[in-house]
Amino acid sequence: MDAAGKKLLLVINPVSGKKLGRQYSKMIIDKFSESGFSVTCIFTTVNENAYDMTMKRGKEFDLVVCVGGDGTLKETVCAVMKLENDMPIGYIPMGSTNDFAHSVGIPDKVEKAVQAIIDGEPRAVDMGQFGDNVFVYVAGFGNYTAISYSASQKLKNIFGKNAYYMQAVKEFFHMKGYHARIEADGEVFEDDYFYGEASNSYSVGGIPVLHNIGVRFDDGKHELVLIKMFHGPKQLASMFRSLIKKDITDNDLVVFRHCDNIRFSFDEPTAFTLDGEFGGEQTDIQVKTIKHAVHIITAQPLPVEDAPEVEAEEEKETVES
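The structure corresponding to this sequence follows.
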């Protein structure tokens, strides 16, 4: 993007990922400055996160670039939406999984991510409304959703996304079904679910299972994924096979829809995770898509996939229990 005369607010979370934010800060500042940006760099603290700092300073700048994990990106997005000035957002991922960055084509390597912002253009991206909260790429409930915020930061710093898998093994024998009624653009689904999510990403928790099923980041739709609770080893094995093949849509345990208005209702309070952080316990919550909520800077246009035909639930092949 044209950097001449533009004022850039650089917000760095120094404890994200492997705590390399400060180490890379001089290189990041130098590269942006050399390209023509006027850079102001600030670091988040325990008392002031990226949301607080962007709210306080954002109106003074032409764009904001956040450095950190998915939580840092979410805080920055929420602030820009609150400011209502449509300020473009650059993202340099330094988290443990960086699901959203991988999905929209933002590089892992810091220097390449900086260059992608310098060379890139703002692209309109959808966000999710979860009650009164906003999420970037996933709102989920059920087994393993607590892993993202229950795995210790120390483990995540050391092992990256493998920390989530280690936590998953610990929780495997505590699986249970969550009875839920879900309304999605006029359709109703009710069952005991192992897991459910509304997402706008190719991967969640570093597991890329939503490729090639019509995910788009600017179409005004989220992807509803519901996985029914397993009954017997054959169903469990079939789900593992689908995950290994990275194609869950042909499995009879899975409900998959593209939709923009979802309501989750539960018999008892059920914990959600929003972008890897605790989203509260909910008994009745509505999720809506906020089309073109913010502009994220990427070097390439957002990926485009054709949506596949979705079979009616009764036409799916049944897996024996």
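Residues 147-169, 314-321 have pLDDT under 50 and may be disordered.
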